[in-house]
Amino acid sequence: MREGSLEAPTRHPLAWQDPDFYDEAKLDAEMRRVFDICHGCRRCFNLCDSFPRLFDLVDAAPSEELDTVRSEDFKQVVDACTLCDMCFMTKCPYVPPHNFNLDFPHLMLRYRAVEAKKRGIPLVDRELAKTDRNGKLASLAPAVANWVSDTGNNLIRPLLEKHADLHRDAALPKYAGTSFALHAHANRPAVNERAPAFGRRAVLYATCFANYNDPEIGKAARAVLAQNGVATEVVHPRCCGMPLLEQGDLAGVARAAAEVAAALDAWIAQGYDIIALVPSCALMLKFEWPLILPKDPAVERLAKSTFDLSEYLVDIARKEGLAPGLAPMEQPVTIHIACHSRAQNMGQKGAELLRLIPRAQVTVVERCSGHGGAWGFKKEHFEVALKVGRPVARQAAKQAGGYVTSECPLAGVHIGQGMEKLGGEAPKPALVAHPVQLLARAYGLME
After folding, report:
1. How far is residue 21 from each of residues 108, 109, 113, 203, measured CA to CA in Å?
2. Nearest partner of 403 among 376, 367, 433, judged by Cα
3. Contact present, 439 and 363 (Cβ < 8 Å)
4. What whole-number distance in Å separates Cα of residue 346 and Cα of residue 281?
5. What is the pTM of this model?
């Protein structure tokens, strides 16, 4: 028996269509097998709240071993998991190909899938996961939608906390009046034919957040790509299904994967690269979808053709070289490397991107912000999310002035709230939603 493994982690397809996947007795046996290994190791004690909850259960049990922990208490461990994948990617020595075959996040996902099949997904969670519908409705009256969700709205936010389980102090995403896809249809930037990378073609998968909440991310990305000779199209067939994955709705994720892959397949056949504007969505297209639909050729082609935005721009810099014209950045910047960027196993591409700007003073924070998608908005999780993310907020706040950014825009807002909670009179760095916006400013393409 080997103690740990030095081999690269690998993942097995999810057997979500196998009846045994939903067998509660078999699930409980696997939970106990994995939790017993985790209890004996405890290397992940400081990653998120799942592991302290598990170890507290064991330590409080009559035998101080897993055999006297009640199975019904496992739910609190599962509920604390944000599916960030950091235990699998960075900490656990027993992931496949080790013969312990331990994949903690996918085990949590299986538990949620069994719960969803047995009890159904709560109505509020189902409605919150309809990001395309919600985005389209909110864009009809964005001022009203943003007034309703503002943390200063002492009339509505307590009601949202009571009926939608959204903590009254959690900063919710704002909505734009015009989606990125609509803006892109009406505005096509001129492609710089003198750029070294001229001739590249890419489709920007808009993602729900860049499409409905913050189109400025997409506008900056498209402008920088055009400056570097890349002709782009903007496509958003539908949400990638990450909110459904969080709830264990694997059939829903499979439907999303099949629909988006089919829509993008024609572009891939024409030689277009696919760029996802948000790391969580890139992770879905590149890694999660092929594990859910491992025999779908369109999903496989899409996975091989997809790039994270920062990854793609760094690839241009390395292979052809960036177009000239970047002005120096005089103020320092702290970048948080999002968990779903790290889970793509591509290195610190956001930091590499910022270092392409002349005189950039880049500080890297590589630790979980604590947010975890919709998880961090919830009434029962928001304070825990702030606690998990406090070390990130502290590191970001050390920089008086300048900028703080994250490739995950939700993580960025959460870090901003964390810095506010720290207080103090020193000026805080200004929050920038994505590092590509700083590159766009350096080119003089955006204010």
Report:
1. 12, 11, 9, 36
2. 433
3. no
4. 15
5. 0.93
